[in-house]
Amino acid sequence: MKPDVVAVGGGLAAQRFCETLRRNGYEGPIRLVAGEPERPYDRPPLSKEFLAGSAGADDLALRPARWYADNAVELLLGERAAGLEPDRRRVRLEGGRRLKYDDLLIATGSEPRRLPQFDGYANVHYLRTLADAAALRAALTPGARIAIVGAGFIGQEVAATARRLGAEVTIVEALAAPLERIVGSVLGRWFADLHRAEGVEVLLRRTVIGLKGNECVEALVLDDGRRIACDAVVVGVGVKPATGWLQGSGLSPGGVAVDPEGRTAIPRVYAAGDAALAFDPAAGTHVRSEHWEAAARQGAAAARALLGLPAEPCTPSTFWSDQYGVRIQHVGNGAGADSVELDGDPDTRSFTAVYRRRSLPVAALLVGRPRELPEIRRRLARHVDHQEQDTGDRTRSRNAPADEVLLGANR
Amino acid sequence: MPQQTKCYSVRIDETACLAHGDCVDVAPGVFELDDVAHVIGDGPPDLILRAAEACPSVAIIVTDADTGEQVFP
């Protein structure tokens, strides 16, 4: 009898898992359980093309409807997992239905971290799903005053799209520089300047201490007493794994630790994407990567592990962002970087920053320089190989995050 | 002298391609998506270049078919 495969999660990781199983000859039953009503779709455009109105919901589908019929992948849409019973090899759904599995993928992704002070207001938006993006899109009208809480990638991309649509935008960020934990404070400030040059008001080291308005937020009150009048609020203060349903299963409801090939502590149970904390040999620790490319790779890796196929070579992690027509790419892991070397002129929106640790390159930020990505990726990959040979063990302590060093060096 | 039309040859770096699908969106007659993108046809040079620039993984390598010179990346 062929084993029964269940993938819980309707995003990229689950989709790539199913595709990789079929491509490598797995012929048994596959069920994909998606919490949202849509077939698996691509999320990056939700803050860009879809939000701007240049792409529709149909454009986002990862595969056309017929792919699921052709590949005998049964879709259970709008079904949320409510519990895992590993001893009985069953997943419990919210409606009470139980799905028996032989092999399971946990890929329920992440959900926005919510700020309770904004609960209950009609014009407060979070951005994760197609439905979230459709609701926000309606608010981004010319002249609308949009207040964005958090200057991470979601906040920045929403700001860029909102400006393109003619809205007035204010970003409120608690840190001294946007993205400073990833790129350090100096280059973090470059991101603030990018938005300012496009007419966005960027307020750093500011927090929201109160709200004005009853059903709708009419103004944010900041810690310096200033009021930011607004027609809509977007909260983008990070995400957390959507793994609460694993409570009591033996796996952590705070994100599922897996080896580099996606195996959890429970045999024949795998995890991938935002729901997973993957062991990263380069960082020497388990890390959660909230990025598209990690979800794609991890979903495929878990399928290969399930089939007993050899793992694909480890490559440096990459993510990208598009803002105001500028492509921004990041590769590697800047944790513990002790120097940063800049090539190009930040004022021209074309530069490369290479982060080094003990003189070896560990990460790079490329702004408007896509042509340099392949070479930098190769340089970093060589270093990853070197490191693995170098340490060989998985017990060494975690390095300091980039900002601890770079902030100290640059402040 | 009559102006020569440029002719590009396109190759996918399969180790870099993660099947984002942006190339297929830009140039559906040139690229097709499987586990990685594949080149299935020809297209005007500017379209090919736009597809290559759209790729977040920079996995599309464009060369001038006449001179062999790499045009992108």
In short:
The complex is a heterodimer of chains A (411) and B (73). Chain A is α/β, with parallel strands linked by helices and 411 residues long. Chain A has ten helices and 26 strands.
Please describe what this structure looks like.
The complex is a heterodimer of chains A (411) and B (73). By secondary structure, chain A is of the alpha/beta class. Chain A has 10 helices and 26 strands. Helix content of chain A is 27%, strand content 28%. Chain B is of the alpha+beta class and 73 residues long. Chain B has 2 helices and 5 strands, in the order βαββαββ. In chain B, the strands form 2 sheets. Chain B has a 3-stranded antiparallel sheet with strand order 1-4-5, covered by helices on one side. Chain B has a two-stranded antiparallel sheet with strand order 2-3. In chain B, a hairpin with a 3-residue loop joins β2 (31-33) and β3 (37-39). Classes of the chains: A alpha/beta (411), B alpha+beta (73).
Give helix % range of chain B: 10-25%
DSSP strand tally of chain A: 26
Separation of termini of chain B?
30 Å
Summarize the main sheet of chain B: 3 strands, antiparallel
What share of residues are in beta strands of chain B?
25-35%
In percent terms, what proportion of residues of chain A is strand? 25-35%
User: Which spans of chain B of ≥5 residues are poorly predicted at pLDDT below 50?
Assistant: none
Assembly type of the shown chains? heterodimer
Mean pLDDT of chain B: 89
Structural class of chain B: alpha+beta
Compute the average pLDDT of chain A.
91
The SS-based structural class of chain A is alpha/beta
Shape of chain A: globular
Radius of gyration of chain B, CA atoms, in whole angstroms: 12 Å
Enumerate how many helices of chain B there are, as a single number. Answer: 2
- Give the C-alpha Rg of chain A: 22 Å
The major β-sheet of chain A equals: 5 strands, parallel
Strand order of the largest sheet of chain A: 3-2-1-7-19
Shape of chain B: globular
